[in-house]
Specification:
SapC family protein, single chain, alpha+beta, about 240 residues
Length: about 240
């Protein structure tokens, strides 16, 4: 289904409602899910958190690995979310923020009218506007969450730039051996924080990371790499039934 993202307004969307859903199958073919540093501590208990590089901008982006095979998200194959935690961005749909221009910080609240989460008035749905054309409390809450995520994304980008400026990222090829396959899977294009480079920082640089609260985030990232074994187990179980 194609998206149809349009600016939200009370004239065209007065009776529009949205429903909440834990069905995230729209991410079923996305092996890597972008995340923000502010959720690293929670996500590190379930997912390997690594970095990828934007081929156009050269910027590093933190992602949660949810699969070991291309185009397969092991967590989003059924309508029920199987984990205790999930990325903040999973709950954005069908709403989003879009900048009015590249040079401006002004944003529009948009809605994907083609989303299955969009509906007419029903018992379990939330209206976006009241009859007086004012934003509903629900829409205000959702807008605040979108603004918060947008701020987190900007801060995450700044942190990645800082770590990159200190040459702390290193490319890492992940080699995965699955039960049903003779040949291992090599996952390329992944970056991690280089512990050796981290330890070789000057006392001043290391203290700067500490004072800015970045060391716990870095260590959460490094500890999360142990969750790769969880993904391998989930992939082996998936292969037995598919």
């Amino acid at each position: 289904m194609k998206n149809n993202i349009v600016p939200l307004n009370s004239n065209d969307h007065l009776r529009m409602c949205v429903t909440e859903s834990k069905d995230y199958r729209r991410f079923a073919d996305q092996q890597l899910i972008p995340v923000v540093f502010h959720e690293f501590h929670q996500l590190a208990t379930e997912f390997p958190l690594v970095f990828v590089k934007n081929s156009e901008t050269g910027q590093f982006i933190p992602v949660a690995m949810m699969g070991v095979k291309n185009d397969l998200n092991l967590y989003c194959q059924t309508s029920e979310w199987p984990a205790m935690i999930k990325p903040k961005g999973f709950n954005n749909a069908p709403l989003s923020l879009v900048k009015t221009s590249q040079e401006s910080d002004n944003v529009l609240i948009c809605v994907d009218t083609a989303s299955p989460l969009v509906t007419e008035v029903s018992e379990n749905a939330q209206r976006l506007f009241n009859d007086d054309k004012e934003q509903s409390d629900y829409l205000k809450k959702r807008t605040q969450a979108l603004l918060e995520i947008a701020a987190f994304n900007e801060q995450t980008g700044n942190i990645c730039q800082l770590l990159a400026s200190k040459s702390l990222f290193t490319a890492k090829q992940l080699t995965i051996k699955l039960a049903e396959s003779q040949q291992p899977i090599n996952i390329d294009g992944i970056y991690v924080v280089d512990e050796q480079a981290l330890n070789q920082l000057s006392n001043e640089e290391f203290l700067s990371l500490k004072e800015n609260g970045l060391l716990p985030l870095i260590y959460a990232h490094l500890v999360s790499l142990q969750q790769i074994s969880r993904l391998i187990e989930k992939q082996n179980n998936y292969d037995l039934t598919h």
